[in-house]
Amino acid sequence: SLTLPGTTANGRSLTSLHPTPTIATMVVAAPSRNPPTLFERNLRHNRLAALYAYWEGCRDGRPLSPQNSIDAIGLASWRENLAIVQVREGKNFTYRFYGIGFKDAFGVNMAGLDVMTLPQEQASILRQEYRTVAQTGKPHWRSYTAWFEDRMQTWERLSLPLADKSGRSEE
């Protein structure tokens, strides 16, 4: 099971990264609602779309999904390629959970470490992305292609904000 010790701090963000293509697929029934938004149509990977649908379901019409609406069992399908990032004072970001898929892909376990311990270029990009998600309370998606070890790979990344106890994203 997925355990998230010390995740009571305000303003966590979910981040899931999936290489494209992948063999694993998942279908999550989303409640009947309006046609997909432009944001939803940009999610090319079905597992990211399913994670977004799960987050939307937990949001249940509120501006943000409350932290207590997201649980380890609900996230179990994504745990391999899931990171949970805690927003700390001073707009610093700590990985509270770092999935085994990331550990294997990048050769490091970032759980409990600050984003700024990453190489400067990567840390800068991620810190800005996490800051934007925390400040706006809006999801963030991007696709990027880079060299990972000896081969070029394309990844999709989805960052989702969670509300603190007061119902807002920590800035």
Structure summarized in a few sentences:
The protein is an alpha+beta fold and about 170 residues long.
Unreliable residue stretches: 1-12, 17-32
Order of helices and strands: EHHEHEEHHEE
SSE class: alpha+beta
Radius of gyration: 15 Å
Largest sheet: 6 strands, mixed
User: Approximately how much helix is present in the residues?
Assistant: 25-40%
Overall average pLDDT: 76
Number of helices: 5
Describe this structure in words.
By secondary structure, the chain is of the alpha+beta class. The chain is built from 5 helices and 6 strands; from the N terminus they run E-H-H-E-H-E-E-H-H-E-E. The longest helix has 17 residues, at 120-136.
Spell out the blueprint of helices and strands:
Elements (H helix, E strand, L loop, with lengths): L12 E8 L17 H5 L3 H14 L5 E2 L5 H4 L6 E7 L3 E7 L1 H7 L13 H17 L3 E9 L2 E13 L8
Parallel strand pairs: 2-6
Antiparallel strand pairs: 1-3, 1-6, 3-4, 5-6
Q: Characteristics of this structure?
A:
single chain; 171 residues; alpha+beta; six-stranded mixed sheet; 5 helices; 6 strands; disordered N terminus
